[in-house]
Design a protein that fits this description.
Blueprint (H helix, E strand, L loop, with lengths): L2 H5 L11 H8 L1 H142 L7 H31 L7 E5 H19 L2 E4 L7 E5 H17 L6 E10 L2 E8 L6 H4 L22 H11 L3 E7 L3 E11 L25 E6 L3 H11 L5 E6 L2 H11 L3 E4 L8 H10 L8 E5 L4 H10 L3 E4 L4 H17 L11
Parallel strand pairs: 2-4, 8-9, 8-10, 10-11, 11-12
Antiparallel strand pairs: 1-3, 3-7, 4-5, 5-7, 6-7
């Protein structure tokens, strides 16, 4: 045992006190030292106690910290899991969005390709339409030119047929009843053929937009009277009674006078043609509205079922009557409808099977012009036998021998008319300047120069400029007539020749030539 160890071991005597204690008592400074040491030991013990408490507290705090750290770690793990889940959700949404964008992009590419193909197809279709339009326009022009040419070519032989038939009808001695019946059939067929040609040309002009209208204020009483005069012979031949109901004679319509007559005659002709034996036709004018006038034509025919009514205004559709006894092309109603609509009107029909049909046209009303207040029924050309003429000279410039023969034979009934003829334009000009005829008949289509050129030469010559020149041509289109009158012809007559019309115009021209008054390019009053 070391001295230090022995120093710390107390010993005792019999009094129970250790020797150190006794020794301390005997030594005060020793006692003080011991007390100080004891206090230090106590302090140390207290410090050890405090340290232990602090250690315990520290351990507890550390435990708390560890728990907090565990909680923080768990929270961090939870946050990381949430972040991971959020990232996964965002990634999934992003993937979905990318897939959607990719799908949209693919559809956009497909749509763009399809749009490009569609644009190419549209362009190709447009090009085809342009080509088709060009072909159609060319074909339409060719059709118009063909029909115009055919009109001329058909009118030329018709001129001979109808012209000579009229001469036979008015000849001396008069034809026998049998001959007259045959002549009437020739004349009827000839004028009917001319009507068909005119209708086809009208339809062609309407379809191509070439119809020119001259609208004016027209007294309907005059129109009805003219139509009545034209249609009653046909009705009498078929035993049809036509009743024209009275109406206000002051009613006027804003129409083309010639075209409205054409439309009404078409309706009246159909009402007679498709009527029953001994049937009736009723013509009535009424006001459908304050500014619209309706002209209706009602027949007592067989009538039409609804399914046929819907087909009425189709070109060349005769509603099953192609093999029937009545002639026709099936375009009369089409022309009528289109002409009336071009004049601002309308066409309608009502029909009952077994009771008949009622066709009507409505026209725009107009005020009565002052000059029309004293109007009367237009004067018809006088019959051939009633035309009286003084001695005169007629020059006919015509290259067709048959047409020349026809006019020569017409003039044979008038010994006071001396007729000269030329087969081309220059010969006609030469005869005109040397013989100075009182009136000239001029064909338009001549082998050397046209009738228009011959007219110009004669008008420029002071010697012949006063002579009235009447065009007599198979070029019967409306623009041909207008061109002829604008160019300076005294009048423009079309073939086939209507003998009374020709003689009346010659009479007017000769009256002008005798008086020397007025303008040689304009006909005198009827």
């Amino acid at each position: 045992m070391s001295s230090s160890d022995t120093d710390n071991v107390p010993y005792t005597d019999g009094s129970g006190q250790s020797g150190a204690a006794r020794h301390v008592k005997n030594r005060p400074h020793v006692v003080r030292g011991q007390d100080r040491r004891r206090r230090e030991i106590d302090v140390a013990d207290d410090r050890r106690i405090i340290s232990r408490e602090e250690l315990v507290t520290s351990r507890e705090d550390a435990a708390d910290l560890r728990e907090d750290a565990v909680h923080l770690h768990e929270g961090a793990v939870s946050l990381r899991e949430q972040d991971v889940r959020a990232a996964e959700t965002i990634q999934a949404a992003s993937d979905d969005h990318m897939m959607m964008l990719q799908h949209v992009n693919e559809r956009l590419v497909i749509t763009t390709i399809e749009a490009q193909k569609l644009a190419e197809q549209l362009q190709a279709t447009k090009d085809q339409l342009e080509r088709a339009k060009s072909v159609a326009e060319t074909a339409n022009l060719a059709k118009s030119a063909f029909l115009t040419s055919m009109s001329h070519e058909l009118r030329t032989p018709l001129n001979s047929i109808l012209g000579f038939a009229q001469l036979l009808e008015a000849g001396t001695p008069p034809p026998t009843p049998t001959q007259n019946a045959r002549l009437q059939q020739i004349i009827k067929a000839g004028w009917y053929l001319l009507e068909l040609i005119t209708q086809i040309l009208d339809l062609t002009k309407i379809e191509s937009g070439q119809v020119s209208l001259s609208r004016e204020s027209v007294a309907l009483i005059e129109v009805i009277r003219d139509c009545q005069a034209m249609i009653e012979p046909q009705a009498q031949q078929r035993g049809i009674q036509i009743n024209f109901l009275p109406f206000d004679p002051n009613w006027h319509a804003n129409v083309d006078r010639i075209r409205v007559k054409q439309a009404l005659v078409n309706l009246l002709s159909n009402a007679i043609k498709y009527n029953r034996a001994q049937g009736t036709v009723e013509v009535k004018c009424s006001l459908s509205t304050p500014d619209r006038i309706r002209i209706s034509v009602k027949d007592s025919g067989a009538g039409l079922p609804p399914e046929k009514l819907a087909q009425l205004f189709q070109p060349f559709n005769r509603l099953g009557q192609e093999n029937g006894p009545e002639e026709g092309t099936g375009i009369g109603l089409v022309v009528t409808k289109q002409l009336v609509e071009l004049m601002g009107g309308s066409v309608g029909v009502e029909s009952t099977v077994g009771m008949g049909s009622e066709f009507w046209i409505e026209l725009t009303g107009d005020v009565m012009p002052q000059l029309a207040a004293e109007s009367a029924m237009p004067t018809l050309p006088p019959p051939l036998a009633q035309v009286n003429m003084a001695q005169c000279t007629l020059l006919y410039v015509e290259d067709n021998p048959v047409n020349l023969m026809l006019v020569e034979q017409i003039m044979e009934a008038y010994p006071q008319i001396h007729m000269l003829s030329a087969i081309d334009g220059y010969r006609g000009i030469k005869l005109a300047t040397t013989q100075l005829p009182d009136v000239i008949l001029m064909d338009v289509n001549l082998p050397d120069i046209t009738g228009f050129e011959a007219l110009r030469i004669l008008r420029e010559d002071p010697v012949t400029k006063h002579i009235p020149i009447i065009a007599l041509s198979a070029n019967a289109m409306q623009h041909d007539v207008e061109k002829g009158l604008e160019t300076g012809f005294f009048s423009y007559l079309t073939k086939p020749i209507k003998v009374n019309e020709l003689m009346e115009m010659l009479h007017r021209a000769l009256n002008f030539s005798e008086t020397g008054l007025g303008d040689a390019t304009k006909p005198g009053p009827l």
